[in-house]
Amino acid sequence: MAELKKYSVLFICLGNICRSPAAQAVMQRLVDERGVTDRFFIDSAGIGGWHIGDLPDKRMRVHARPRGYELTHRARRVQYSDFEDFDLIVGMDATNVDDLHARAATIEQKDKVVMMGDYIRQYPNYDHVPDPYYEGSEGFELVLDLLEDACRNLLDSILQQNNIPQ
Ligand code: 4NP
């Protein structure tokens, strides 16, 4: 039987060492739990290039591990081909979304960009995933709480809109 086309999701934050690699791991686990692993390709990248090739920030890895996430992504910068290659590009905050819109070359590419905050349901005080880089431990826990909520809702929406059976 012919292999079904994978739905591809690219998570974007500023440095690609805190929020977006965590989002990638949270989404990958949800996809695996729902039994749709072979229908998805999940990746992450950064707006900036300061940390290219680095593992996620140690603090992000330390906070993710007790929740069962091993963060092994190597940071990379978002590139032109991502706008062609991915079905959905998810920014963590309004600045990420603005930066992505500025890089999109066509209306179709621009339309692929969404904001993670639009999928947060359990934390009504948050409309984005805040940058934890200059925050303490609570900032990293908050990122994981928000991502676990938002990724669940985002995955529901993708499965429904693309008629992907579970
Ligand atoms: P992230 O956090 O965007 O969630 O990966 C940051 C990581 C690094 C920097 C800023 C934010 N930085 O300025 O190096």
Largest sheet geometry: 4 strands, parallel
Provide the CATH architecture: 3-Layer(aba) Sandwich
- CA-based gyration radius: 15 Å
In terms of quaternary structure, the protein is: single chain
Descriptive account of the structure:
- Helix content is 41%, strand content 13%.
- With 166 residues, the protein is α/β, with parallel strands linked by helices.
- The chain has one domain (7-161): Response regulator (Rossmann fold, 3-Layer(aba) Sandwich), CATH 3.40.50.
- It has a 4-stranded parallel sheet.
- Strand 1, helix 1 (19-33) and strand 2 (40-46) form a beta-alpha-beta unit.
- Helix 1 (19-33) packs across helix 6 (137-161) and helix 2 packs across helix 6 (137-161).
- The longest helix is centred in the C-terminal third of the chain and has 25 residues, at 137-161.
- The model has no long low-confidence stretch (mean pLDDT 97).
- Residues 13-19, 50, 131, 133 line the site of 4-nitrophenyl phosphate.
- 4-nitrophenyl phosphate binds at residues 13-19, 50, 131, 133.
Keywords:
41% helix, Rossmann fold, single chain, 4 strands, alpha/beta, globular, four-stranded parallel β-sheet, binds 4-nitrophenyl phosphate, 166 residues, 6 helices
